[in-house]
C-alpha cells in the first residue's frame, strides 16, 4: 500500500448539486480507488455519485503567480453584475 498512488475523491451529495472534494485514498488502480472512496466517504449514504482522480494528474495554478494569471479579468468590469443598471420593471432581482 505504501507504493499505491494517491487519488482525490469528489462526492455529490444529491442530484443537482456539484461534486465536492471529500478527501483522498490510496489505491493501486481506478476501480479500487472508487471502491475505497465509496467505503470511506459514503458509508452512511452521504452521496449519490463519486469521482476519483489520480492526484498526480491534477494540475493547479501557482498561488505565488495568481496575480499574473488572473490579471486580465480585472480590466473587464462589464462582467460584474454591479456594472449594469436594472430597469425598474425588473427591479425585484
Key attributes of the depicted protein:
about 90 residues, single chain, alpha+beta, Ubiquitin-like (UB roll)
Briefly say what this structure is.
The chain has 93 residues and is α+β, with helices and mostly antiparallel strands.
Radius of gyration: 20 Å
CATH topology: Ubiquitin-like (UB roll)
Count of strand segments: 3
What average pLDDT do the residues reach? 84
CATH homolog superfamily: Phenylacetic acid degradation B
Query: Level of helix content?
Result: 10-25%
The rounded distance between the terminal residues' Cα atoms is 54 Å
Shape label: flat
CATH class: Alpha Beta
In words, what does this structure look like?
- By secondary structure, the protein is an alpha+beta fold.
- Helices cover 23% and strands 22% of the residues.
- The chain has helices spanning 30-41, 66-74, and strands spanning 6-12, 20-26, 49-54.
- A hairpin with a 7-residue loop joins strand 1 and strand 2 (20-26).
Please give the structural blueprint:
Elements: E1 6-12, E2 20-26, H1 30-41, E3 49-54, H2 66-74
Antiparallel strand pairs: 1-2, 1-3
